[in-house]
Amino acid sequence: MVKIPDSIKKFIDEQGIFVVGTVGGTKFPNVSPRIFFRVDEDAIYWIDFFKHKSYKNIQVNPWITVSVFNKDNLEGYQFRGVVSYITDEPTKSEIKESILKEILAKNSSPKVKSLSEKEYQLVQFEPKVCYSLNPEKYSDMSIGSDIDAKYLFKN
């Protein structure tokens, strides 16, 4: 797996949001935002409160893309990797509580509070490849990988 450097972890936390791209059996891509998350060195976790398009797509295809960007600085990153759902209850509860504590301290919106009380799935994303989204850099060259991307992403 790709280790997420502290500078990129900090960047993701500062943005406070990232988008998840999935593709399922219909072959139509789906992109959805995430704000309830935690970034560790080797994984990104998020709370999924809905069993809608992303959830259904992941059941068919666990390979996803996570993108985060800063529109003012034209800086960002894209990760490709696999997701799984954490079901081990002590681990699931610990990660959920750490995410909620952080998010609710930053965001006092009634909608965010209401969402935080819903039933949820805990997603673990393990990045396999990382790309820069900075326009002046080569965005098609990986800046971190633990796989042969040419082999993996062939049609």
Topology readout:
Blueprint: H1 6-15, E1 18-23, E2 29-34, E3 37-39, E4 44-48, H2 53-60, E5 63-70, E6 75-86, H3 89-106, H4 110-116, E7 121-132, E8 142-145, H5 149-152
Antiparallel strand pairs: 1-2, 1-5, 3-4, 4-7, 5-6, 6-7, 7-8
Biggest sheet character: 8 strands, antiparallel
- Determine the strand fraction and express it as a percent band: 35-45%
Give the distance, in angstroms, between the N- and C-terminal Cα atoms: 22 Å
Q: Which stretches are low in confidence, meaning pLDDT under 50 for 5 or more residues running? A: 149-155
- Secondary structure tally, helices: 5
Shape from CA axes?
A: globular
The number of distinct β-strands equals 8
Q: Return the structural class.
A: alpha+beta
Can you tell me about this structure?
Strands 1, 2, 3, 4, 5, 6, 7 and 8 form an eight-stranded antiparallel β-sheet that branches. This protein is of the alpha+beta class. A hairpin with a 5-residue loop joins strand 1 and strand 2. It contains five helices and eight strands. The longest helix has 18 residues.
